[in-house]
Structure formats: C-alpha cells, structure tokens
Design a protein that fits this description.
Blueprint lengths: L1 H32 L10 H30 L3 H22 L7 H24 L4 H21 L28 E7 L14 H8 L1 E8 L5 H10 L3 H4 L15 H8 L2 E6 L16 E4 L7 H15 L1 H5 L4 H11 L12 H16 L6 E7 L11 H7 L14 H13 L3 H32 L5 E7 L4 E2 L5 E2 L6 H4 E7 L6 E3 L9 H8 L22 E5 L2 E6 L2 E8 L7 E9 L15 H17 L10 H8 L4 H6 L1
Parallel strand pairs: 1-5, 1-6, 2-10, 3-4, 3-5
Antiparallel strand pairs: 2-9, 6-9, 7-8, 11-12, 12-13, 13-14
Helix pairs in contact: 1-2, 1-3, 1-5, 2-3, 2-10, 2-12, 3-4, 3-10, 6-16, 10-12, 13-16, 14-16, 15-16
C-alpha cells in the first residue's frame, strides 16, 4: 500500500522539479543575457553560471512550498514551480538595471520588489493556465531561444579571448655586429601615480627593481592621457612636437619611432598592450613586427568576469540570498568556470598580460638577435577591482550614497567626481576609499612585476629593463577624479626605473627625467647616437635644468626652475595662438599647486607666458582618427570621455 500511494506523489514532485528546472534555466538565460555591464553571446556561459545558484535556490523553495502556496494563491503547484524562478530571473534583471539609481536599504528591496510586482501582474494568467504541461514548457524554451537570438542581433559587445601565446616571429639569422648588444624589456603601467609607490603600501617588486635601477621619485609625463604619453615615450618627442594630444589622435607617417629605429638596426620588436587606446591605427605600433592588443577592441574575459561578479553582489539572487563573503566567493568561482586556463592565476587584466609576457620572454630566450619587448599593463586603471576579501572590506566603507554601483567601477567613480565638483562633503570620504581600492590594484601590479622580473633574471643575455607609467590619477585633489582632466602633478608625476648593463644604480633628482628622454638614453646604451632622437637627454649624464612643457586640449603647462605655469590656450599651432594664465605655482611649497602666486611674481609670470606662447605657436597638431561605433563604445566604456562626445 505505501508504494501504491507514493507513485502519484513522486510523479507530482518530479513534474514540479522538472518545471522548476525549466524555469531556472530559462530565467537564468534571459536574466544573464540582459544582465548589465557584461553582455554579449561570447560571455553568456559565465553570466549564467554566476546567476544560476540563486535562481536554483528559489526554484527549490517553489517546489517544496508549491502545494501550500498554490492553494493560497489558487495556482497549480506545477505552474508555480515553473514560473517562480522564471519571474525571479526577470525581476533580478529589472532590479540590476535600477540598482545604481537608488541608495540605502532600497537596494536590498529592489530584486524582491521587482519580482513581486511581476508576479502580481502575472497572477491572473497563472491562475487560468492550470497545470503546466510538457507542451507549455517546450513553448517557454522556444520563446526564450527566440528572445536570445533577437538579443544577439542587437548586442554587439565583444569579448576577446586571451591568446595562449603571441604569434611567433619569422626566424632571422644572427648577426655578428649585434653580438653582446642588450635586449630591452619596457614595461608601461597605465594610470600609476608616482606617489603610489612612496606610501605605506608594501611593494617588494618595485623595491627590488629600485635597488638595481637608475630611478627617480617621479618623472614628468607630457600629457594626462594614455595615447599622447605613449607617443612621447616611443618617439622621443614632446606632445607639441608629435602633435597627438588626446586618445583619438594619430601619428604623422613622417615621425620616426624608437621601435622603427631598432628594427632597422636588426632588433626584433614585439608589443603587448591591454588598452584599446593603443590601437594599431594610431601609429603607435609603427616599427613593431608584432603588436598584440589583448582587448581586441572588446572586453577581456577577465574584465567581463569581474563586471559580472561585482554587479552580481547586489544585482542577482545569488548575491542577495547568500551571506558575505560566501556570495562573492561563489560568484567568482562560478564565473571563473568559463575563463580560459591561462587566466587562473588572478583576476586582473595585468595578470593576463603578465602571463603572456612571461611566455613570450621564454620564447625570446632562444632568439639569436637582441629584441625590444614593449609590455603595457592596464591595471590599476579604473575599474579598481582587484578582488579578494580585502577589496570587499574596503568597498564596504564607501558612504551610503555611493553604494549599489560596482565598487571601484566607472559609474561609481563618475558619481563621486560629480559630487566632488559640486562640493558634496561625502565625495572626499568616497575618494579616499576609491584610492584604497586603487592601491589594491597597485599591489597586484607589484605581484606581477615580481613574476616578470624573475623570468628576466633567468635569461642568459643582457637585458635593459624600463618601467614607467603614462600618467597618474586624481582622487579628489582639485575636486577632480580620474585622469585626462588637468595638468596637475597628480596626473603628470609618474614612476621611473631603468636597470641593466651600463646602468649605475642611483637616484635622479625628482622631475629631472621625462618620458621623452627614454629613446635617446636607451639607444646610447645600445651603442647608437641618432640625430632623430637627439631632443631628449641621456639620463646617465648629469642632469641640467630644462623647461618641461605638458599639454592637453585647451591647456598648456610650463615647468621651469621650481615653478609651474598652467595656461589656457587658443589657436594652438598657429601664429595667432593666445595663452591666458590659469595659475602660477611654486612647486617647493606644500600644496604648491593650490596657491596661485601670479600676483606676487609678475616678472616671472610674464617671462613664462612669453615662453609658453612661443611653444604654442610652434606646436604641431595631429589629425584625429575617424573611429567606428564599436571602437568609440569600447573606449568610452573604460572612461575616455572624448569618445563619448564623438558618439
């Protein structure tokens, strides 16, 4: 008798389980496809895996409580089991999109609120639907597939797989005249402030490099943006000489490049970058035999995974139902199942670039000729999300008005920037927390640097190692955030390290080195004296006092003998150029770029204005590239506002 009565009960439970499974899968697929911040068919598996656990819990509850709840709601238990996780998936999607627009306790009510609202709207239909059938479940699956196909046609977000290795260079025979010549490993760390290495943050990798380097407390960048500063590094020319003043410019074909010179002299040349700004079309890759962009114009899987995880903490049922830090750990683990094997060492874009760089160095060990390998790391550029329990604890200290958005993400940083400009007091506290998140990424850079330097030390050949940054980052100074928006020290002071054969370790005076000096210095160490790169200084020699000119669109800055003039400029590159002073600052003064000394130093102001005007009249202004919509979308998505204005 017991077995006879168990069969129909088992059958009903099985139907409810099947319905719930169907609802979980379809709800998960649709929720994941519309999940904000990391869309695109290529990364759908990671989003589904990250979001399914929460929906599975809801589906299980619907199966267990279906008979009792169905009787109260007058809905068949099978129908309830199917539609509860399905509507929860829809509600999670709606809640995730609304999350950045609310603050406080409302954030925790969004997902349940949206789901309950959808359920109440659908309740009359559910009451009339009766028991769900296999035909009904099949219909839902077909509808879901059709929705996904339609969504694939309107969503063009690109997720670029991380390559297992760089393409091999064609073999070239050794040359006797190149025997003993040094190879060059040049590391450029995006957005790394010089003072990030001078505080309390432990940086054993940078410390080890400093101990064997010619280094400076800070070098001077010519521009607060990625592409212009890299153009100066790789051409040996200032921004007003090569003309690329923002991330949309491109280099004139007549301007010689450092890589081109070395390639002509017999060096092998490779580039590995992690920022779409450093695109081949800009001319930055001229002279390189191989130039690999890890983003490919889209998102790397690592970046896409981090976006899923951070948004999933409050924008998914997995994040809402599980206690911290279990929610973050599970989201990372589930999203990580879809990552390629080479990304297992960490969750930063710099880690992926470091892994590839190490493999490339091992391959270059057998290269008979010297080589120049340029490696660009995107960390610690926004988003500031290195992951881990410490990052979670730091983000929890953000003021209430900034919670809900991705911690350290672009939307959150921009909201802090708006408040800082408006004088909102909470912005200062938020900026301090964001800087701590930023320093967590600097720590990740340090860890990767240690791994890369260990590989360099294992090479049986002379190698010059250069490490610099393109620009810094604002964290509330001058009521600013991010970069590209000023010519203040926070953006123009960058780290500088040069190590290897022919280098006597020691400290250069702060500010005596500038990025455009590197080609001449490195060529001298390789035994060349080229007139094409004579504008820079050989940093091994005793530094002499020099003017330094920095530029961004609409502004110029002149640094001379401990003073700095920032001026507005019009008509750049023409005889009709005009400059108007914005501030004259004494750099030795504490907080020197806060106190305008123009009124106290009229003669100095006049002399520096005249010099700056001459630079403005002689300036070269490069053309800007015509980018397609996908390029502009990729670039604006990582914070480059000039591409948003173009869109």
């Amino acid at each position: 008798m017991p077995s006879a009565t168990a069969k129909p009960t088992d059958g009903r439970v099985a139907r409810r389980l099947l319905g719930a499974a169907c609802g979980v899968v379809v709800g998960g697929l649709i929720s994941a496809w519309w999940f904000p911040g990391a869309t695109g068919l290529a990364y759908l598996p990671a989003r589904v895996l990250a979001l399914l656990p929460g929906l599975a819990l809801i589906g299980l509850v619907a199966v267990l409580l279906g008979p009792a709840a169905g009787k109260r709601l007058r809905v068949a238990p099978d129908t309830l089991a199917l539609w509860t996780p399905l509507l929860a998936g829809f509600g999670a999607t709606a809640g995730a999109w609304l999350l950045p627009r609310v603050a406080g306790a409302l954030q925790f009510a969004l997902l349940p609120g949206c789901t309950i609202a959808l359920f109440l709207v659908a309740l009359p239909l559910l009451r009339r639907s009766g028991r769900s059938s296999s035909r009904g479940r099949a219909g839902i699956l077909v509808a879901a597939v059709l929705l996904l196909v339609w969504r694939a046609q309107v969503d063009r977000t690109r997720v670029t797989p991380i390559p297992a290795a760089l393409e091999p260079l064609p073999a070239l025979a050794s040359r006797s005249d190149l025997e003993g010549k040094p190879s060059i490993l040049w590391i450029s760390v995006d957005t790394l402030r010089a003072d990030a290495l001078a505080g309390e943050l432990p940086t054993p990798g940078f410390d080890a490099l400093r101990s064997r380097s010619l280094w400076s407390r800070y070098a001077l960048a010519p521009n607060p943006g990625t592409l212009p500063s890299h153009m100066s590094m790789l051409t040996g020319r200032g921004v007003l000489e090569h003309g690329v003043q923002d991330n949309a410019g491109y280099l004139d074909a007549e301007v010689p490049t450092f890589a081109g010179f070395l390639a002509g002299a017999g060096w092998r040349t490779r580039g590995l970058v992690s920022n779409r700004v450093l695109r081949v079309e800009s001319g930055i890759a001229r002279g390189f035999e191989s130039w690999t962009d890890l983003t490919g114009g889209g998102l790397t899987p690592l970046v896409a995974a981090k976006r899923v995880v951070e948004r999933g903490l409050r924008g998914s049922w997995t994040g809402l139902l599980l206690p911290g830090p279990l929610d973050r750990q599970l989201l990372y683990r589930m999203a990580g199942l879809a990552l390629p094997p080479e990304s297992e060492l960490g969750w930063t874009a710099g880690t992926a670039a470091c892994d590839l760089a190490i493999r490339t160095l091992r391959e270059l060990a057998a290269e008979p000729r010297p080589w120049f390998f340029f490696v660009h790391w995107m960390d610690p550029h926004v988003p500031y999300s290195a992951g881990g329990a410490e990052t979670t604890a730091i983000a929890a200290r953000l003021p209430e008005r900034y919670r809900g958005a991705v911690p350290g993400g672009l939307a959150q940083v921009r909201r802090v920037a708006e408040d800082a400009a408006a004088g909102v007091p909470a912005a200062n506290a938020a900026a301090a927390v964001l800087q701590e998140l930023y320093l967590r990424e600097v720590a990740a850079v340090d860890s990767n640097l240690q791994r890369l330097l260990a590989q360099v030390d294992a090479l049986d050949r002379p190698v010059l190692v250069v490490l610099v940054a393109d620009h810094g980052e604002h964290f509330g100074e001058h009521e600013l955030m991010l970069h590209g928006n000023s010519l203040y020290a926070e953006l123009l002071h960058v780290p500088f390290f040069l190590a290897g054969p022919g280098i006597e370790p020691g400290e250069l005076p702060a500010g005596s080195a500038r990025l455009e000096d590197l080609p001449r210095t490195l060529l001298a160490l390789c035994g060349f004296l080229s007139a094409e790169f004579a504008a820079g200084a050989d940093l091994r020699e005793t530094p002499v006092a020099r003017d330094h000119v920095a530029a961004r669109f609409g502004e110029l800055a002149l640094t001379r003998e401990g003073w700095k003039l920032i001026a507005r400029v019009e008509g750049l590159g023409t005889a009709q150029a005009r400059v108007e002073p914005l501030g004259l600052f004494e750099l030795a003064e504490v907080g020197g770029e806060r106190s305008d000394r123009s009124a106290e130093q009229p003669q100095r102001l006049a002399a520096m204005l005249e010099a700056l005007l001459e630079h403005a009249r002689r300036a070269v202004v490069a053309d800007r590239a015509a980018l397609d919509e996908s390029d502009r979308a990729a670039l604006s998505g990582i914070g480059y506002a000039e591409f948003e204005r173009d869109r």
